[in-house]
Amino acid sequence: MKNSTNTIITVILAVAVVALFVLHFTDQRSKSPKVTPIQAGDSAVVMPIAYVTLDSLMSQYNYAKDVNDKLMASAETKQANLNAQGRQLEKEMQDFQYKMNNNAFFSQERAEREYQRLGKKQQDFQQLQQKLSGELMEEQAKTMKALSDTIWSQIRTYNELHGHYQVILSNQGGSIIYSVPMYDITEEVVKYLNDKYDPSKSNPEKKEETKK
User: Is the pTM value of this prediction over 0.70?
Assistant: First the structure.
């Protein structure tokens, strides 16, 4: 069950980041100024377009890794508590069955009360499973939205300070069919993001340097 939960978290995390990035880039692309046409075959001109490889960014950005670790730790804690309660419930149900098989109850009424108690406890356990699952999904959604917003904000600031690209794309979601390495700014962006990240602060964005 634990491994299944971790797998679900990883998938949700990856899908959430990609989806939010696609939404961000799509929205910003619609607001971006038109790119000045460039003559085909002019190798002396560099297109004002770049792209970021999200898989590499998410695996190398320290804030993203810390977020993933935090989500995993939260899920593991919830799962451990749930497993402990599940084992206790299973033990009580086995004890009940053992007593039933050996006619250990002094009256039918006592057996029925114990049966009803265990039924209620099992129902409460199932509700707890659903509650913890919902809490985890909500925590993931909020955390990943904050991460996505931070990355987009930082990339936008990076571009204002260093890039001056008119369009920055992601390589996820079919945005790019083919590209050449010269337009890949992933390494530069990751370095910029990690330089700005302060793990001691709740907000990973540091104060930007004043433009000269």
Answer: no
Q: Which residues are bridge partners to 138 per DSSP?
A: none
Tokens for 33, please give them. Answer: 């100024």
The string of pLDDT tens digits covering residues 29-87 is 444 444 344 444 444 455 688 888 888 898 999 999 999 999 999 899 999 999 999 99
Three-state secondary structure along the chain? CHHHHHHHHHHHHHHHHHHHHHHHHHHHHHHCCCCCCCCCCCCCCCCCEEEECHHHHHHHCHHHHHHHHHHHHHHHHHHHHHHHHHHHHHHHHHHHHHHHHCCCCCCHHHHHHHHHHHHHHHHHHHHHHHHHHHHHHHHHHHHHHHHHHHHHHHHHHHHHHHHCCCEEEECCCCCCCCCCHHHECHHHHHHHHHHHCCCCCCCCCCCCCCCC
